[in-house]
Specification:
Elements (H helix, E strand, L loop, with lengths): L3 H18 L16 H15 L2 H14 L4 H21 L4 H16 L5 H12 L12 H9 L3 H7 L3 H15 L4 H13 L5 H24 L6 H17 L4 H15 L4
Helix pairs in contact: 1-2, 1-3, 1-5, 1-13, 2-4, 3-4, 3-5, 4-5, 5-6, 5-13, 7-11, 9-10, 9-13, 10-11, 10-13, 11-12
């Protein structure tokens, strides 16, 4: 049974995910600008519904962590079992957000372990949880793990076991952009591009190969090197990158999920 605290963490995580969906322009990712197109509206509505479908599973993960009290193989196994059930619920709601579920689930559980922890301590606790193997996981390699092995990319598991370095970089980018006077939308886009510029996104590697991944990373770096999205040059570079990635059909979904993780940590009252 979940508590009010568990439900609050789940709501904060879902709010972070839907907040990420509302950003525009997001290079290669769905955003609200094109909702006049029926197919795009369906996709966006599906993503919003599936984001909300995460809430019960995330609350259950928080409750499991609060009950267990520390990172352990038992907690890791329970989180894995809850995650697989939640993936089924996501599928019924329209699909999407599997990568975000992994990141947010670990971060929500880590936050529940220590309600007074700061963002980096939460990421460290998530690392400790991720260090244990999930003995109940399917034995067949996932697409992400296969791509990680093929190209030597860290992948979602490596990101978690390293303490979510890209989530921490996104938090730093948020803080820097806000301090420089950027709007909240611009600060969040800067955080997204910071992640995109270095993340070894296994979904991109699967779809585009190493050359495509480097193309996306270089485009994101170009926006930031132009001054970020709050500057005229940066906004122009962002628009060009957005057009380019949508034309190619390349979608950096891994970066979007990690941005949601950063927005979740950023929203916690202990920060």
């Amino acid at each position: 049974m979940t508590s009010c605290e568990d439900d609050a963490l789940a709501v904060a995580a879902v709010t972070a995910l839907t907040g990420q969906l509302a950003l525009a322009p997001k290079p290669g990712l769905p955003d609200p600008r094109d909702l006049d197109a029926r197919s795009t509206r369906r996709e966006h509505d599906s993503l919003r519904w599936s984001a909300k479908a995460l809430a019960p599973g995330l609350a259950a993960m928080a409750a499991s962590a609060r009950r267990t009290g520390e990172p352990s193989p038992a907690l890791r196994a329970e989180l894995g079992a809850i995650g697989r059930c939640t993936e089924h619920s996501i599928g019924l709601a329209g699909g999407g957000h599997k990568g975000a579920l992994w990141a947010l689930g670990l971060l929500v559980a880590a936050a529940a372990l220590d309600p007074r922890a700061k963002a980096r301590d939460i990421a460290s606790n998530a690392r400790k949880i991720a260090a244990f193997n999930d003995k109940g996981a399917p034995k067949r390699p996932s697409r992400g793990s296969s791509i990680s092995a093929k190209y030597g990319a860290a992948g979602a598991r490596g990101e978690a076991r390293a303490g979510f370095p890209h989530v921490r970089r996104a938090l730093d980018a948020l803080a820097a952009a806000r301090k420089a006077g950027a709007t909240e939308n611009q600060a969040r886009l800067d955080a997204l591009l910071t992640v995109m510029s270095t993340l070894q996104d296994t979904e991109l590697l699967y779809a585009t190969g190493p050359m495509g991944l480097r193309h996306v990373q270089a485009g994101a770096r170009g926006v930031m090197e132009a001054g970020g999205t709050a500057t005229a040059a940066g906004a122009e570079a962002l628009a060009a990158l957005d057009t380019d990635l949508h034309k190619r059909g390349w979608s950096p979904r891994g970066s979007a999920g990690l941005l949601a993780g950063a927005l979740f940590l950023d929203a916690l009252p202990t920060l």
